[in-house]
């Protein structure tokens, strides 16, 4: 397992993250096995959100119950959660951030979060309120570090103008079959759809400002349109290329899908949302596969992207 340093923190973290959005699909015994397998594979980073679960916060409670959370286990983990999504709207108000964080801590049975992210941009955000909430949480020791999810450079700059703490993480969708993070940068100044800059060059911005990007849905095509691995109807060439490269490195196609992301020099963390233990083990083998430039671009073009 490759470990990276999250800039402007003292956190040394696995470049793979276990995401717990679907943990309630498992029995408690199965959930414990999944978590402990992740730890055995040297994943030390676990990602939550207060909205995850059939009911609000249910996945956080289930996680703590499954692992029998205690001080000894807690010190081996980096725990991250997110707040700001409510039923039918987004809410970055001070009151909601503080209330949500207290609920998260209670459900996870911990006294502090390593990182708290604001989940999806709130168009009605008042950054002064966010700053006040973050300051209270930081001073009280409830949250060590802060970040955002799905935000562009201007949104981050607006928050950072008021927030005293450095925003250290941005969680964004990225996979071989969902590549807006790199498309416009590859096809600069061309009159084609691939050249459209949809995110304000957030990947370059993150590298310039030492913000760690976390890639969610690493096996999905589009916005929850299903996995591209094994989709021979829509991605025959991509699967052929991935399978060929997987054979070269003696790993599964899942590992190569992960390795394509971890190969990027931005040191992107990959959020694994699988509930399948074997798929988790297979994915972990992609933590540090040294794909060549040629292999990386071969995979990129096989997904339907062009090189100028």
Defining key terms:
alpha/beta, two-stranded antiparallel ribbon, 308 residues, globular, 8-stranded parallel β-barrel, 12 strands
Structure overview:
With 308 residues, this protein is α/β, with parallel strands linked by helices. 40% of the residues lie in helices and 17% in strands. It has 12 helices and 12 strands. The chain has helices at 28-40, 58-67, 71-74, 94-108, 127-140, 153-162, 180-186, 202-208, 236-249, 253-262, 277-284, 293-302, and strands at 3-5, 12-14, 16-19, 45-47, 78-83, 85-86, 89-90, 113-119, 143-149, 167-173, 212-216, 269-272. The strands form 3 sheets. It has an 8-stranded parallel barrel with strand order 3-4-5-8-9-10-11-12, surrounded by 5 helices. Helix 4 packs parallel to helix 5 (127-140) and helix 10 crosses helix 11. It is globular. The protein starts with a strand and ends in a 6-residue tail after the last helix.
Percentage of residues in strands: 15-25%
Order of strands, main sheet, comes to 3-4-5-8-9-10-11-12
Q: End-to-end span in angstroms? A: 35 Å
> Counting H and I runs of at least 4 residues, what is the number of helices?
12
The Rg value, from CA coordinates, equals 19 Å
Which consecutive residue ranges, at least 5 long each, have pLDDT under 50?
none
Structural class, by secondary structure, is alpha/beta
Number of strands: 12
**What's the mean pLDDT score?**
96
Shape descriptor reads globular
Q: Percent of residues in helical segments?
A: 25-40%
- Summarize the helix and strand pattern as letters: EEEHEHHEEEHEHEHEHHEHHEHH
Biggest β-sheet strands, sense, barrel: 8 strands, parallel, barrel
